[in-house]
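step: validate -> pass
step: tokenize input -> pass
step: predict -> running
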Amino acid sequence: MLEIKNLTKQYKPGKPIFTDYTNRFDAGKCIGVFGPNGSGKTTFLRILSVNSYPTNGTVLFEGIDVHENPGKFLESVGLVHDEETLPQHLTAVEMLEWILRSRKLWSDSSADEIDNIFDNLALVERNEQIGTYSTGMKKKTQIAAAFILKPKILIMDEPLRGLDQATRKVVSEMIARAKKENRLILMSSHSIEFSSELFDEMIEFPL
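step: predict -> pass
step: emit ->
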């Protein structure tokens, strides 16, 4: 499903962040991306989510170069970024409705689906402005926005950061269901916070 060929990223003269990395990730798999802060895992996921470009190499999604066709690729992707840049004056419910409508995915059941996902994540403040949210509440909103799309690929950078133990368990269950639905999940962490049974492959940075 997602094929990486000879991927290299270098910001300045000297040692590259990673060089000639090649791999293939198939649908129905969960890939753990581990390493300390500054090791390159966020850069790697930013390239896969077309938020950054490689110095060399290509990323192919179902045979399509994602950096040459970003719009088409991102139609199949749900993202949880490392930065919590969300629309401050919208509520979480309004944000998810806007996302679904912008992708022409709104249906008669969408309002109930939004409520259900926020119920699962225990986001009680879903109808308050996002600008008033704590870090954990913003992370819950990001996760809900990624999963509500039912995307083919979920790319999540540190999705557990700022979450309590109960919510981490809920997110783990959501990921397990996504695997059963044949979605590909790539998720970074600075430590192994989920059971290793959840991951089909683990990539350790620096590469």
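step: describe -> Residues 2-204 form a domain with the Rossmann fold fold (CATH 3.40.50.300).
step: cleanup -> pass
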